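Hi there, hope your week has been kind to you so far. No rush at all, and the record is pasted right below.
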Amino acid sequence: MPISSDPSSAPLKDGPSAQQKMNTAMLLSFISRLLSATKGIENEFNTEASRLKSSLERASSDSEIVDKIKAVERHLMLHPTLLSDTIKLSNSATVQAAKSLQNLTKDDEELKQELNTIISAPQDSSIVSLQSKIKSLFFIYHGAVKNLQKSQPVDNASDASCEKVHQNICNDLQRLINELDFNGGYGSNLKKIRQRLIVGIEGHELVEICIQVINNIIEGAREERLAAKTFLNTVVEELNNISFKFDNSMSDNDKINNKQIDILASLRERIDILDLDISTSNNIEETRQNVQQGLEVISATVDQNEKLLQEKIRLEEQLRAIQSQLNSLKKETLMHTQRLEAQQHKLYLDTLTQVYNRSALDERFKLEFKRWQRYQNNLVMAIVDIDNFKSINDTFGHIAGDKALKIVARALQKTIKDTDFIARFGGEEFVVLLQDLSETEMMHPLERLRNAIKTIPFRFKGQQVTITISIGATRFIEDDKDVTDAFERADKALYEAKSSGRDKVMIKL
């Protein structure tokens, strides 16, 4: 199709010839194939070429078609070597990737040979051959990874260690959630997360759970801080308001008192004047008039005093209202304080078993060790572990495991004395501190604890199950530098009780 170089030239009067129509059709076909071939290589070029194709299809004016062709040419001039540059960069990246794979394929001759072929091959000049090379590189990488997985020995000990770490993290997260007492949505979210931890999560879920716990703790703490700040601001505002009202009332009261003093002084003065007039006057009519005037002044003074009394009554009502506000604020503050105290108490309670938690145990350890250092009293530490607890979870489910923990905790708590202390250390372990027991007296209460659990009739899913505990115990001794010394001895005694058959009490001094 002939195109005029002058954009203002008019189209042919007789319309396009057959030859022009054929040329246009061929050009459209060529542009369509060109667009298909270059699709995905450069979007701007495709856009400009598509606009040219659209103009040709609409049989637009020569000037419009010339503009579209110039736009395509301009784009090609700006990016003359786009594809070749891309191929060059891809060639370089392919060689680097192949060299990085050499260490992974050194034990596989077939893969090694394929990799060497890619490294030694000349650089490609077409995108098609480069794609083929990259595809081969992917296959080599896949084969190398498979070989690497096969070559890794199965390490049961490592798997067991990872499982233990996973379980410890889950237990720590549960304990952390138990110690938090957020109101509202964040508290509900944390309780739902704890339920997931109780049921059990896969290893790949742990990171996500940790992030969720952190986010909910941050937002929950922010919400609690905002609520506390709002409450304190309200208290301060109420106190300022009460103070303002009280100051005004006291000021008004002082004014009334001063007025009453002035009225009384004026009244006495008027009475004195009246008395003087009566005693010195010889004219009855004059005396009568003076008395009349005096009585009128006294009456007005009495009226004024009555108004002041009414004002005093109003002030007393204001003061009573202020007192009521103070009482209400006192109650609200007391409720807030009680909630904080309840929160503090909850921080030291294990939510599941309702015995003390690890944080409370750490505090009690410090207190008891200081007391022992001062008085050298007989203090026994025992670590209690539920035997085969994992098999209970595996056989009957985590709900049954939770039930077992609750029952064991309750039984231990009922068996010890009020002066003794019990806390859940973590998982299925409890720590018990027993007061005033000599070396010869230790075994009896510990055996009583063991038998108390053994005789409880547990039933899970209709089955009778006997649950036993192993106990490792010790006393604080003169060589103990801190609590951990005694704890390590008790832990070793527990290990001996477990390894020698379970359902036993072992004491290590």
Notes: Confidence is low (pLDDT under 50) at residues 1-13. Residues 203-280 form the longest helix (78 residues). Residues 350 and 357 are 5 Å apart (CA to CA).
